[in-house]
Amino acid sequence: MAYRTINPATGKIVKTYDDISDAALSKAMDVAQACYENDWPLRSIAQRAEVIHAAAELMRRNRDRLASLATLEMGKPITEAKSEVTLSADIFDYYAKMAETFLKPRPIPDVLNATIETFSLGIILGVEPWNFPYYQVARVAAPQLMAGNVLVIKHASNVPQAALAFAQMLEEAGAPKGAYTNIFASTDQVGRLIEDTRVRGVTVTGSEGAGAAIAERAGRKLKKSVLELGGSDPLLILEDAPFEATLDNAMWGRMNTTGQSCTASKRVIVVGKERGEQFLEGLRIRMSSLRAGNPADPATTLAPLSSDKVMTGLLQQIESAKAAGAKVVTGGSRIDRPGFYLEPTILTDITEHNPIYTQELFGPVLSFYIVESEEEAIKVANATPFGLGASVFTANLERGKEVARRIESGMVYINRPVWSAPELPFGGVKNSGYGRELSELGIGEFVNRKLINVSAAGSPPPSDHQAG
């Protein structure tokens, strides 16, 4: 696997890195295991928090440099890249502050002298994606390091400089060697790591295929996995939703990170024919007004896609959709300029027999539906193998909550697109994966919740009905 920086705005290779050798990988695992056995989990929570707080401060201090790397490597608009760095620092601070509360022993109600105590597991292997090169790693690293685990991270092959910068930042913050290890590993090497007895859990953010393959291999070795996979998030617009504010939110939900987000609003579903046509026209005007430019320029309104592969795949999906009867309202073509730029695209007239009815569109391509009723909107929203996030827009908040409860997803936001914060759990259902990151739930995925039940010396043995 070639780890290399290719500038998406030009298509040119900037820098390349070699895969890690088997010998170097073996040594890295030895160092990580030694760190786990002799150092990191033996430190107090407060001592670990000092390192994590320091890492957060380094992220903020180096925000511009870190953001520039993300923009260079995957084309993220510079303003959004800076926001990502800030969010990542907030996640580190959150877990450094809250870990003691999350990890403290908890008595079991109505059982005298029985408590649940929390212990680390060992080495956690993370396989991370390119679309949020800092945030995706931060939401794994911060909670798991605070829990006392150590991490070996295989980042995406197109963001090697961001991966190295993240690892360097933790080292400068005082993390001991082996607490956090970045590896430029091949797919085969990752497979062998999953089977390494020292790896006690695997967390993956990526495609359905990658997640299923890794989970299957981990399962055969009886290792827990957490999967954060794709999404085809619906954005439902009910009859009473305020027009302009909803339009603003729909644009942000679809176009943030140039649409390359698992939780992007990929399907807009409007109740009512007249309102649907009004929203469609509003979105058409806004999307067609975006102009391609250098993502490092804050004035740019349309950034490139992350790679030629992503762009080519989207163009193929658009052609397949058209062949199955979909109508292109705006866009649909590659932009004639260097780099990986695609016209913002809206597709309508999508029937349940169209391939994109159930597919994920990972980029600036929006599926648009007009339905006659709330019931039909919910049906379309759930007609997908994915179940990550969803949004419901309405002036009636109670009605919005009722609709939200009927949508098959791990997260539903009312009157906002799906977004992220350290204290809010993140994760999905169905083919979007399982497990949760962030909040208290995120720190509990790879720990041993151990029962400690104390009886007085000289107590009699349990009665028969208490046997395990």
Return the structural class. Answer: alpha/beta
Give the helix level as a range of percent: 40-55%
Strand content: 15-25%
Taking the sheet with the most strands, its summary is: 7 strands, mixed
Ends: how far apart? Answer: 49 Å
DSSP summary: helix tally: 14
Cα-atom radius of gyration: 24 Å
The CATH class of the largest domain: Alpha Beta
CATH superfamily of the largest domain: Aldehyde Dehydrogenase, Chain A, domain 1
- What is the CATH architecture assignment of the largest domain? 3-Layer(aba) Sandwich
Low-confidence stretches: none
**Total domain count:** 2
- The CATH topology of the largest domain comes to Aldehyde Dehydrogenase, Chain A, domain 1
The overall strand count is 20
Can you give a write-up of this model?
The radius of gyration is 24 Å and the shape is globular. It has helices spanning 22-38, 45-61, 63-74, 78-103, 135-147, 160-172, 187-195, 208-220, 243-255, 273-288, 308-323, 374-382, 397-406, 439-443, and strands at residues 3-7, 12-17, 106-107, 114-120, 123-127, 150-154, 180-182, 199-205, 224-228, 233-237, 265-271, 327-330, 345-348, 365-371, 386-387, 389-393, 411-414, 429-430, 433-434, 447-453. The protein has two domains: 3-229 and 432-452, Aldehyde Dehydrogenase, Chain A, domain 1; 233-414, Aldehyde Dehydrogenase, Chain A, domain 2, CATH 3.40.309. The longest helix is centred in the N-terminal third of the chain and has 26 residues, at 78-103. It is 40% helix and 20% strand. It has a seven-stranded mixed beta sheet, sandwiched between helices. It has a six-stranded mixed beta sheet with strand order 7-6-5-8-9-19, sandwiched between helices. Helix 2 runs antiparallel to helix 4, helix 4 (78-103) packs parallel to helix 5 (135-147) and helix 9 (243-255) crosses helix 10. The chain is of the alpha/beta class and 468 residues long. It has 14 helices and 20 strands. The model has no long low-confidence stretch (mean pLDDT 97).
